[in-house]
Amino acid sequence: MHVVADKYVVLNEISRCRYGSVHLATQTRDRGVVAIKFVPTNVVKCFDKHVVQRLCKLRTSHVDQTAAKLPAEFVYGTMCASPEVIQYEGCYLDQGCWAMVMQFPEGFSILRDHIIGHGPLEPSALRQVARQLAAAMNTCVVNGVDHRGLSAENV
Question: 81: left (phi > 0), else alpha (psi -120 to 50), else beta?
Fold first, then answer.
């Protein structure tokens, strides 16, 4: 059994990206479901943790206390608080990887998986996804975040 930071029990892989993988996990205290993205520490851009904490007002209880740096993806995600953007809940060093813990809302599905399983979206559903995507991208832009990894796996 793989446990991250004594807080999360890692379950099955749900997605793979160029630099790592995303797994479902349960929280040890309340069994709530989250997603954890594992990315090797040597392939990600990082920022000094103390600078980030001053700029972003990060909750220090949710980041690895032994790490001097934090991955840029986690920092940018923390800057983009919005209902349309999946929120990061924590970031920990784990077996040579950054383990970035994210919300996994009930009923959530990745757009790519939905299209593969159900075919193209109906026009009304497509409009709803487009509105949510535009709102999420607006949140990123307003907060100075350039999301260059936009793909069906991220929607």
Answer: beta
pLDDT tens by residue, 121-145: 999 988 998 898 888 888 888 888 8
User: CA-CA distance, 103 to 20, in Å (whole number)?
Assistant: 18
**Could you give the CA distance from residue 48 to residue 121 in angstroms, rounded to a whole number?**
42
Query: Residue 124: enclosing H or E segment and its boundaries?
Result: helix 123-142
Q: What is the pLDDT of residue 101?
A: 96
CB atoms within 10 A of CB 145: 18
Q: Is residue 37 classed as helix, strand or coil in its secondary structure?
A: strand
Secondary structure E strands in the chain = 3-4, 8-16, 21-27, 33-40, 46-48, 69-71, 88-94, 97-103
DSSP per-residue codes, 83-115: TTSPPEEEEEEETTEEEEEEE--TT---HHHHH
- Cβ burial of 12 (10 Å; 0-12, 13-18, 19+) is exposed
Phi, psi for residue 85 in degrees, rounded to 5: -115, 130
Q: CA-CA distance, 84 to 30, in Å (whole number)?
A: 24
Continuous segment of H or E residues that includes residue 133: helix 123-142
